[in-house]
Amino acid sequence: MSSLLTTEICVVGAGPAGLKAAILARDMGAGVTIVDSGVSLGGQLVKQTHKFFGSRGQFAGMRGIDIANLLSDELLKDPSVDVLCDSQVVGFYDDGTLAIEKDDSIRFLKPERVICATGASERMLPFENNDLPGVYGAGAAQTLMNMYGVRPGNRVLMIGAGNIGLIVSYQLMQAGVEVAAVLEAMPQVGGYHVHARKIQRAGIPILTSHTIKAAHGTEAVEGATVWALDPEFHPIPNSERYVEVDTICLAVGLSPLTELLWQAGCKMGYVPELGGYTPLRNENYETTRPGVFIAGDLAGIEEASSAMIEGTIAGLSAAKSLGYQTDDFEERLSRAKAELRTFRQGPTGRKVRQGITKLIALTEGVRAFD
Amino acid sequence: MDDGRIKHHPILEFKEGRVVRFTFDGKELEGYEGEPIACALHAAGVRVLRESPELKRPRGFFCAIGNCSSCLMTVDGRPNVRVCVERLREGMNVITQKGKGVLLADN
Ligand SMILES: Cc1cc2nc3c(=O)[nH]c(=O)nc-3n(C[C@H](O)[C@H](O)[C@H](O)COP(=O)(O)OP(=O)(O)OC[C@H]3O[C@@H](n4cnc5c(N)ncnc54)[C@H](O)[C@@H]3O)c2cc1C
Fold this sequence. Notes:
The complex is a heterodimer of chains A (about 375) and B (about 110).
Chain A: E1 4-12, H1 16-27, E2 32-35, H2 64-76, E3 82-84, E4 88-92, E5 98-102, E6 105-116, E7 120-122, E8 135-137, H3 138-148, E9 155-159, H4 163-174, E10 178-184, H5 193-201, E11 206-208, E12 210-216, E13 223-228, E14 241-243, E15 247-250, E16 254-256, H6 259-263, E17 268-271, E18 276-279, E19 292-294, H7 304-321, H8 329-343, H9 350-369
Parallel strand pairs in A: 1-2, 1-6, 2-3, 6-19, 8-15, 9-10, 9-15, 10-11
Antiparallel strand pairs in A: 4-5, 5-6, 7-16, 12-13, 13-14, 17-18
Chain B: E1 19-24, E2 27-32, H1 37-43, E3 50-51, E4 58-59, E5 72-75, E6 78-82, E7 93-95, E8 97-98
Parallel strand pairs in B: 1-7, 3-8
Antiparallel strand pairs in B: 1-2, 3-4, 5-6, 5-7
The structure holds flavin-adenine dinucleotide (FAD).
C-alpha cells in the first residue's frame, strides 16, 4: 500500500458547488485538497455554452464555461490548494480514508473533513431497444459536441422538454445537427419558456403529452416510434408515428450521485422532488456522519446558482468545525442562507422547497432515534 | 477524418490536438491525441463499441463520464477499458469487445 496522504478538508467534485466550497474553506484558513475525475475543473459548467438564466443568480448572464474558468482560476493560482484532476474517488472507508484512482493506480488520502459535491447522473428511460447504440444521455451528447467538437448524430429525437432537453436541443442546432422533435410526457413544457420559444422559433416541434415507444435499428438507431399519452399517462392506441432519426437523446431527469456517501454510511432519504435518494443533512449541509458535508446537485437536483451558495455554506461550516474563525463568518453564513431562500422563492422553487421540507423532516426523524 | 466533426460553431472554437493514428478492429483510423477514444471513433462513424455478454446485443457510447459501462472495449490487449474517458494515443490498438473479456496476467 502506498503512503497515506493527509489534508484538512477534501472536496470531492469540482463543479460549481465543490469549487465554491474549496474557495470558501481556503478563505477561512483551512488546508484544502480538491479532487475531480474530469480533465479540467468546472463540472457541468464546462459544457454550458449558453448564458445562464435569471437575474437572481450570482453570475446570471455569463456563459457556464466562463463561470467555470473564473472559479477554477482562483484555486489554480493558489499554491496552498492541492488540485487533483483526472482522479476519481472510488472508496470511502470506515475510518474516513478516501481511495483515489489515477492512471490505474490507487492513492489513499485521509482528510479531517470531507465535502462531497459529486453532482448527479442522468436517468435512463425504459422502452424497447433502449440499449441500441445511438441512444445517448443528453448530457453525454453535449460532452461530445461542446467539449470535443464531434456531432452526436445527423438527426436527433430529444426526449424531455425540461431545461436540459431544451438547451441541448438548441445546442445541437448550433452544432449543425437536425432536431426532429422534442417529446414531453407532461401536458406542458417543464423548462423555462425562453428556452422553449427559442427552439420553436427555429421550427423544432415540441410534442407535449408524447413519449417514445421504441427505438429501431439493427446495429444502431435508425428510427423511433413515438406515441401520444392521455391525461393519466396511458399511451393512446393507434397514435403511433414513426420518426426517422439516427440518435435519441434522453433528458428525463437527474439523480444525485450518492455512491460514495452510501459507502460512508450516511443516511439517505427518498425524496422524489430532489431527484431520488438524497443524503440527509442539517441546515449547514452536514450529513448524518459528522465531518462529512455535501453541496450542489448531490444535495438535491437544482441549479448552478444554488449549487454555488450551498458550496459556500458547506465550505464555511467545514472550516469552522475545524476551529477556523473569521470576523465575518456569521455574517457570511447567514447571508448565504438568505440568498438560498430568495433563490427558491416563487413558483419555480416550489418543488425544491417541498423536497427540502421533507428532507429536513426525515433528518430530524433520524436524529430523534440517535 | 473530419466527417463527424463540427467545422463551424457560432460560439465555440475547438483546439485540435496533434493528429495520431490508431487501429480499430485492424482498420487504420485517425483522431486527435488526448481526446477520449470514443470521440475519435464516433467522429469516424463507429457507433458499435462492444457486444453484450449474454444476449450479444450491440452496445455504444452512452454516459460520456465513465459511469455506465456501456462503452467497454479492449485497448492494447486490456479488456473493459472505458473508452469515453480513456485518452487516445498514437498507435493504440482498439478492438470491439465481445463478452466479458479476459484479464492477462501481465496486466
Ligand atoms: C444542459 C444543462 C444546462 C444547464 N443550464 C443551467 C443554467 O442555465 N443555469 C443554472 O443555474 N444551472 C444550469 N444547469 C444546472 C447546473 O449545471 C448544475 O445544477 C450544476 O452544475 C450542479 O453543480 P455541482 O457542483 O453540484 O455538480 P457538477 O457540476 O455535476 O459537478 C460534479 C463534479 O464532480 C465530479 N465527480 C463526481 N464523482 C466523482 C468522484 N467519485 N471522484 C471525483 N470526482 C467526481 C464530476 O466529474 C464533476 O466534475 C444546467 C445543467 C445542464 C446539464
